[in-house]
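Quick one, T. Sequence first:
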Amino acid sequence: MFGRNAKVNLELNREVEKLIKSGGKEKLLPIVQAGEPVLRQQTAAYEGQLSHKTLDKLIDTMRVTMLEAPGVGLAATQIGLGLALAVLEDHVREDDDGDPREAAEFPFHVIINPSYEPIGTETRSFYEGCLSFDGYQAVRKRWLDITARWQDEDGNKHEEHLHGWPARIFQHETDHLSGELYIDKAEIRSLTTNENLEDFWCEDPVPTEAAAELGFDL
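C-alpha cells:
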C-alpha cells in the first residue's frame, strides 16, 4: 500500500467516484482534448489519496476507455484528473514483423508516479499520435532505450529497461503527467491528419526522401 500514514482525501475520492459513474455501464469516459488546462498542469504525486476500491475502479475505467478509443496509453490528465497515474497496453500484431519502430508485446501496466531516464544516446523518430490531439499525428524523436520507474496500484516499486515502441509509449504517457504533449517537441512540418498518414505515409513510418524534403532532423 501507499504507506501506513496514507490518508484518503474524501472530497477527491467523491469526485473520482462521480467521474467513474459518468462513464455509465460501458465505463467510457470522455477524453480531454488539447487546450484544456488540465493537460498543461503538473500532476500531484499519488500518495494514497483514493480508497483502494475507488483506485481499482478508476484503473478499470481508464483501461476500458483507452482500449475503446482505441489507444495504447491513457494518462489521468486525459480524463481531467490531476494525479500521477496512467495505464498502458499494446500487443504485437502479425503485420508488426520487421517494423522499424521495434514494436514488442507490452502487457497491461498501471504506472503511478512514473519517471524515466535514457540509456545511452540513441534516438528514433517516428510518427506518433495522441488521444488528446485527436485526428492528427506528427514525427517525434524519442529515446530508444530508457530505464523506466514506477509504482503499481499496491504501491510496489518497479524498475525496467524498455526498448523501442514500449519505451516510446512509456515516455509519451509519463510526459503527460508533467503537462507535456507530444506535439510540443514534434517536427511540426510533419503534422498530418490520420487519413493523410494512411494515404501517403503508412507504407513507411518515416520515408527517408520525404523526410529530407520536409526538413526532418532524423
